[in-house]
Amino acid sequence: MLRKIYRKANSGVIFALAAGLLTTPIAQAQSPYEDEWSRGFKHYASQLGDSALAQSILNYASQHERLLQQHGYIGRVLPIPAIEQVAPGVFFVKGALMWGTLENFGLNNNITAVELESGIFVYNTGSNPAVAYSFHQKLQRHTSMPIKWLAIENYQSHANLGASYWMDVGVRNLYSEQAAADFWQTRGFDRAVQRVSEYGPLLIQPVRNVADRYTRFEDRLIINEGSGDEVHLVNFGGGHTPTMTGAFIPSKNILFTGDLGFVERLPGLLHGSSYSEWLASFERMVDYVTTHSSDLDNLLVIPGHGGATNLTELTRQTYDYFKDLEAVVKQAIANGVARQDLAQHVAMPDYQDRPMYSQLFLRNALSVFDEITTGQVSDPTLADE
Ligand SMILES: [Zn+2]
Question: Ligand 1: distance of its center to the CA of 109 in Å?
């Protein structure tokens, strides 16, 4: 497939050349592997009046693009964290417990692959094509099953930005909730590319917006119902982002919480997050698995951030945190504490050893304060985390 796209792109270049269209920008023919280097050569070729020389320069550019392709995105497997097999046939890479940086290759959330009866289900695309490629390379040392289905948890880049890699390697079933997919297609992608370009342009060099290829749903979609490949994709509702796609796999008794579930690091209320919606969505998620899991005590829970866990621990670290935060902020409001003085009144010592506490404790408290006092959440322009 890759090769086909690549050939098509280059035959476009050659056709343009043969048709004597050298005065128009030849580089319009897009290869997913075009970079500044080959764009420069194509532009140079387009300025030349000498078609033989132009052709040799274009050959050089196309060889360069072929090499980029053969070397697999950025050329070698990134030293992302090792794959942990957290249950039989469940391959998990844990993202950094902070925001995306060059040092963690933007990988700050989890990617998981699950062997089902006839293929592999992957939850989250990876935070960029280079991370997706690296995860795939590592995964192939553990399993030879084909990857057939891929679910995208929400609006964020760490859920979406690896999608074009999976399309390139032939995965066609990428699922996302409707509003999240619309957001990503029209605004999220461009914004994410801009942000990652600032710290790691190589990580996204081959990236494309493929959201028009996502299979969309609103409330729930069951993949291959009644088979050993059954996966329930459920929009449990907003909280962290305005909607959130969780996944429940009956045959494996696994719940993917997406960003309704954080363990280890502190959860974050971003622009547009709502703690009260988060609590309600979390309750819907617990209701869902309580109804659908045949063995709730042994349910394996893969949170959006932090290591694999169980429902009790997840509830303690996410749901109970927001309940405690709500109580602390409500007490401060009852005591007449002003918004600008909140920092002195909302310390939560039980939580301060958790990663991201110092970055988020006040921001979260302010978000809860605003939601309680005004009923509003802040500008829904999404920040990424
Ligand atoms: Zn996240």
Answer: 6
CA of 278 to the centre of ligand 1 (A): 13
Could you give the 3-state DSSP secondary structure of residue 120? Answer: strand
Residue 222 alpha carbon to ligand 1 centre in Å? 23
C-alpha 372 – ligand 1 centre gap (Å): 24
Decide: 272 and 378 in contact? Cβ < 8 Å.
yes
Instruction: Quote the ligand 1 centre to 158 CA distance (angstroms).
Output: 7
Give the Å distance between the CA of 3 and the centre of ligand 1.
33
Domains present along the chain, CATH in parentheses? 2-70 (no CATH), 84-259+281-309 (3.60.15.10)
Which residues partner with 302 through β-bridges?
256
Instruction: Kindly give the distance from the C-alpha atom of residue 279 to the centroid of ligand 1, in angstroms, as a whole number.
Output: 16
CB-based burial, 169-191: b 16+ in 10 Å, e otherwise: eebebbbbbebbbbbbbeebbeb
Q: How far is the CA of 304 from the centre of ligand 1 (A)?
A: 6
Look up residue 298 and give its DSSP letter.
G
315-358: pLDDT as tens digits: 999 999 999 999 999 999 999 999 999 999 888 999 999 999 99
Give the chain's length: 385
> Per residue in 270-310, pLDDT tens?
888 999 999 999 999 999 999 999 999 999 999 999 999 99
CA of 362 to the centre of ligand 1 (A): 19
320 CA distance to ligand 1 middle (Å): 19
**Residue 275 Cα, ligand 1 centroid: separation in angstroms?**
15
Residue 63 C-alpha to ligand 1 middle, in angstroms?
38
**Contact residues for 309 (Cβ-Cβ < 8 A; gap 6+):** 263, 301, 303, 317
CA 132 vs CA 86, 254, 377: distances in Å: 19, 22, 33
Residue with tokens 């089902």: 116
Q: Alpha-carbon distance 128 to 197, whole Å?
A: 11
Q: How much distance in Å is there from the Cα of 9 to the middle of ligand 1?
A: 35
- Contact indicator for 73, 205 with CB cutoff of 8 Å: yes
Phi, psi of 92 (to 5 degrees): -130, 130
What span, in angstroms and rounded, lies between the C-alpha atoms of 236 and 263?
Answer: 18
